Amino acid sequence: MPAPVLLQPRPLARIPGQLLLLPLLPLQEPTRHLPAEIWHDILAHALVDEIAGATSWCWSLLAVSKAFREIALPIVYSRVQITQMTSLEKFHKLLHSADQKWDSIRRIPHSTPGRWVQTLDLSELAFVGQQQALLLDSILTDLFPLVPSLSALYINPSFVLSRRALYSLCERDGAANLKSLGGLTYLAPPSPTPSDDPFVRLLQCCPNLEEFEIVGQGLDPMDHDWVIPIQLPSMEHFRPLKLEKLRLLSLLSMHSSPLMLALLCSPLPSLRKLTLTPYNDLPYPVSLVSALIATHGQSLGSLLLFTPKSWPTRLRPSPDNLFTVAPNLRHLSLENPLPNLVLLEPHNLQILSIPRPRADAWPTLERLFPFLPRLCVVRARDVRWIRKGISSVALDTGVQGEMREWRRRLARRKIRLLDADWNEESLA
Predict the structure, then answer these.
(1) Has this prediction a pTM greater than 0.90?
(2) Which of 80, 224, 252, 421 has the highest local Cβ count within 10 Å?
(3) CA distances (Å), 104 to each of 29, 82, 164, 174, 235, in order?
């Protein structure tokens, strides 16, 4: 509180009086300045669902004040999602120009805003043609060294990164910061040795990797019925990969490759979720899928078997010993044709996913229920409940009728039937 102000209208009087000066308006307390750390948390929470460059509201924060600009600008650049090639070219030009102006006198070795980028999402960038793909590969080759703090990279699988782009990603400063890689497309190298595989080189440079998703080329349609026997190279001098933090691994449309061989011969102690395309009709070592499940199955909590839809699509059988090699599974997703799983003792499986309910699949699963006391959810992975308003006759026919019949049967066992969106019929 400020000191009171006293007025003396007759200071020379024998007994001078004093009047207390009262303010007409209430006194305002001085504004308390929040620390920059608190403002950073506030703006980070406000921008958690915003995409840099997608809305003008992100950039309007930078015009509030100089202090806001200094706090918000790194947050805006921390997560970049690009959906057009022209935007990627402008982004690359901005980072390249800023890096050219960066001098060695500054205490920070890396330029801004490149050092602020932590997530680069190109998964929504549509594939147009080979010329665009070549331009993208060239831009990313120059862009990766400018983003040393990059921790997550997502690419449209339609694009295939060249060896020079992969080496630019793994040989840059800060390669150990990578924690998530998704959407990469795998092309087998000419040499079967893992040490000559650029993706193996990439994993060697990313010891902190937690999520890795890659899509292979699958089998050529002409090779479905006639597969040439192969011989695995010697792994005597191979140094196992150090991926102690890898939790999620997805290898779709890949039956055998130097990358799979390297993962097969490397310990993955933190692996909890594995997604593969089954090739159980191919013998070892033509297919390494079953061997990969058997090697790392002890630590798995989720095992997803899935065949990407392409034309022509051929569904291959799955292993029948999944419960034996993966005793700690909580979620198992199967692919058609459903395997005749071997289960002779109780298992703690809680969620079982199948492509879609069919009459011929019920006996295969029904015999497993007595050995699955904790099973609470069966999910139809490729089917959704029809919206309300459809006649009862339509609901009792086709796939919807089969789902309703399965729902009644499973309800007797206190098991819920969910659709592809994890919804029950009452929520559809």
Answers:
(1) no
(2) 80
(3) 46, 31, 27, 18, 44
